[in-house]
Design a protein that fits this description.
With 401 residues, the chain is α/β, with parallel strands linked by helices. 32% of the residues lie in helices and 21% in strands. The strands form five sheets. A seven-stranded mixed sheet has the order 1-2-7-8-9-10-11. α5 runs parallel beside α7 and α8 packs across α12. The longest helix is centred in the middle third of the chain and has 16 residues. The N and C termini lie far apart (58 Å). Bound molecules: MU-OXO-diiron. The site of MU-OXO-diiron (FEO) has 8 residues, from α2. MU-OXO-diiron binds next to α2.
């Protein structure tokens, strides 16, 4: 991909990776992605905003060189240090020997470990600080946890452009870069939403704060770090409105207490049903359904779990452990946002019953509030076991009543 002129003074010099199938180990990328980077040319100084993925350095270097002599770059602005954007930094310091690196104070610290150079010179910038390039000004908008502790955005008032970092991005490889060229708007919007869910879903309060921070800015271009540049003539209005909608935190009414389980012979299922009855004995209007984990889509169950007020999870013991579908669901726990969420653990077992204590230990490590003791029932639950399951359900409901 060649460099692309975005405005008179802004050039896109990032790289496309249309073949990427999975980002960061867990996120499927139907449309690949891009690692966006921009050059801003002032009358006196030149800045490179964001770097790129280390694996694409040769193409990246070629794009930069087609716009300016890298040796003449005065500043490298790192809005966010995750390696998809900072991976090329170490090599860039050789290519741009006089460039001063700018990042937030947190980012400056991270960069020393990312480049493994304790002597790396990084100038920390503050929220609202401005950088004069000569006829063009860059203003730093610090935005912690959008989506990393080091995150910031950079605004150029003369070009009405916001370099928004991952914010308002999408894993959508699109070589023309400007969203006015998009043909598959539906596909792009799907990628945009999936990106929000995966990257910003856990940080909704910070998304709200980020939207508030940029609301007073006059913006015609959002030069993000992944996917097409958003323009006021294209997807910008849609993207900002969707972020507003998607970051809204909805309170459950009635309260949601799902009961998840796996069960080979109906024993753990019987405990799940009694837990459900126990929940409803305390909160009759609660939405309390049982879910056999292997009969449902994992992402649907994960959404149920993470949006619940409390939940129960049960597993039989197999090979001295909980069964894999239960672990897969627990791996989807949004540990950042559901700390202290009440949870009950249960399961039938035949020989030794390690599943329940193993799940209790895992949920405790994730800082959830495991109520009661994990309930274990040997082989087929008898009346006493079922009574304990009912009581555990009631206790779980009482924890949020
Ligand atoms: Fe695209 Fe958070 O890195």
């Amino acid at each position: 991909m060649a460099a692309i002129k975005i405005t008179d003074r802004i050039y896109s010099v990032g790289v496309q990776n249309p073949d990427l199938e999975v980002f960061d180990i867990v996120m499927a990328t139907e449309f690949g992605t891009s690692y966006n980077s921009y050059i801003v040319k002032g009358e006196d100084k030149t800045a490179l905003v964001e770097t790129s993925h280390a694996d694409f350095f040769d193409e990246y270097k070629s794009n930069i060189t087609s716009v300016t002599d890298p040796a003449k770059i005065d500043y490298i602005i790192v809005n966010h240090t995750e390696p998809d954007h900072s991976g090329a930094l170490a090599a860039l310091t050789e290519l741009c020997p006089k460039a001063q690196i700018l990042a937030t104070a947190v980012g400056a610290n991270y960069l020393k470990n990312i480049t493994n150079r304790s002597d790396l010179g990084v100038r920390p910038v503050k929220d609202g600080e401005e950088l004069d390039l000569g006829g063009v000004t860059l203003k730093f908008v610090v935005a912690p946890l959008l989506h990393w502790p080091d995150s910031m955005m950079t605004y150029c008032k003369e070009e009405k452009a916001l370099f928004s970092c991952d914010f308002l991005g999408a894993h959508y490889s699109f070589a023309p870069m400007l969203d006015t060229e998009l043909k598959d708007t539906e596909g792009y919007r799907r990628a945009f939403k999936e990106y929000f869910d995966a990257i910003f879903g856990p940080f909704k309060p910070f998304v709200v704060a980020g939207l508030a921070k940029i609301s007073a800015l006059d913006i015609e271009y959002v030069c993000n770090s992944h996917g097409p540049v958003l323009t006021s003539a294209g997807q910008l209005g849609y993207a900002v409105a969707e972020y507003g909608k998607m970051s809204r935190i909805v309170k459950n009414d009635p309260k949601k207490i799902p009961v998840f389980y796996c069960s080979a012979y109906g024993c753990t299922a019987a405990l799940a049903e009694k837990i459900r009855e126990g929940v409803l004995s305390v909160l009759p209007t609660a939405e309390c359904k049982t879910y056999d984990i292997i009969k449902h889509d994992l992402s649907v169950l994960a959404a149920q779990l993470n949006s619940s007020n409390a939940f129960a999870i049960g597993s039989p013991t197999l090979n001295a452990d909980a069964v894999p579908p239960v672990w897969n669901l627990i791996a989807s726990v949004d540990a950042i946002n559901i700390k202290k969420r009440p949870a009950a653990v249960f399961g039938s077992y035949g020989w030794s019953g390690e599943a329940v204590p193993a799940i209790v230990a895992r949920l405790t490590a994730l800082k959830l509030n495991v109520v009661g003791e994990g309930l274990k029932a040997c082989f087929v639950p008898g009346d006493a076991d079922l009574s304990k399951a009912f009581e555990l359900g009631a206790l779980l409901a009482q924890s949020i009543a």
